[in-house]
Amino acid sequence: MEILPEAVNGCGTRVVTFACGRGNLSVLRENGALESRELDTGKVLSSGKLDWDLPMETAPWGYRFSPDGSVLASVRRRDPLPDEPRLEIYRHSGNGFTRTLSLDLPEMKRSLHTLVRLIASSAEPGRYYLAYGGGILEVDEQVAESRIIAPSPEEAASGAIWFAVSPDGRFLVRYVDKGLEVLDRRSGQRRRVPVPGDRSELFGTRGFFIGSLAGEVVFRSYDGTEKRKLSTGAGRPLAESPGGRLVALATDREKPPVRVEIWEVDGARKICEWSEAGAFEPAFSGPPYRVLCATRVEGKSGASWISSEFRVHDAATGKVLQRLDLSADAGPAR
Q: With contact defined as beta carbons under 8 Å apart, do 121 and 141 qualify?
């Protein structure tokens, strides 16, 4: 989901996106401040600022953390060529986030330039997969190169749009007709998966979740060997735990309060639930598994950002373990 700051005079310190690792919280603010915080206390472990030459409101093509918050990718307009996209990768180490890559991106479908997903390869450190511009890019940090792995020239001519990739880069996913098509790059096999019209999807570590407001969420592994049905009225899959053992589901956000349910995927078993007052953003950390939730604030212009109050829930009981106040940025790097 794209989260853009509402237009202000200069860039402020509101949170625009976040992600969780096992015990840390990664935060990006609208002024480019990038922080790593201790999840238990909110204490700043390291901080810095992105190497942006332009304010964030001039760079609306997207920024995404990897699921564990260890890598941030940004796609922005390049000065002085505002129509040319440029990719920057920031990777977390013991001293905080460091820019490890900056390169021009290949020509993609211009109406779809938004960065949708960032996946750090599970097989090779320094290799990333980006769902961007209607296709899938493979980026190699070591040689500072990117290449389009989908769509093929023939698919691009027909308007095909690929939007998801498995962490090992083997499986690609796109919408076709009234379903999904999953491509196994190793064998060349293509598999069709039917989906409901009111679908809501989440692409995770082992596979993907397709939800329906009619009252069911279905998990399918990328290779097609596993299928689980979760019978629930919470038909929106929102977040997956590290490793894919748990998933957070939610009811319709247009009908608050929103019920949040935590499910064990393999056992198709609901573990706990709680209510949120309205729209919110969740992220898992662990083990031990916790769910970090923050309210999404809608601005008058239609832009949105994330509240500075974060609630940390126990994934086993749903109880709030603590509240974190991120109302101010971290200031100078520590």
A: no
Q: d(Cα 179, Cα 306) in Å, to the nearest integer?
A: 32
Q: How many CB atoms lie within 10 A of CB 53?
A: 9
- Residue 118 to residues 75, 111, 129, 169: CA-CA distances in angstroms? 11, 19, 6, 12
Q: Which domain, by its residues, includes 316?
A: 15-325
Q: Report whether pLDDT(267) > 50.
A: yes
Cβ-contact 5, 303 below 8 angstroms: yes
Does 177 fall in a domain? Answer: yes
The predicted-structure confidence for 43-87, as pLDDT tens digits, reads as follows 999 888 886 644 444 444 688 999 899 999 988 765 555 567 788
Give the whole-angstrom CA distance, residue 164 versus residue 209: 12
User: From CA 237, how far away is CA 269, in angstroms rounded?
Assistant: 15
Residue 5 maps to a domain: no
With a CB cutoff of 8 Å and minimum separation 6, the contacts of 285 are 20, 21, 22, 23, 24, 25, 39, 242, 291, 292
Distances (CA, A) of 45 to 41, 89, 282: 11, 20, 22
Examine residue 84 and state whether it is found in any structural domain, yes or no: yes
Residue 114 located in a structural domain:
yes
- Give this prediction's pTM: 0.88
Closest by CA to 248, choosing from 256, 237, 234, is: 237
Domain CATH for 22 = 2.130.10.10
User: How many domains does one find in the chain?
Assistant: 1
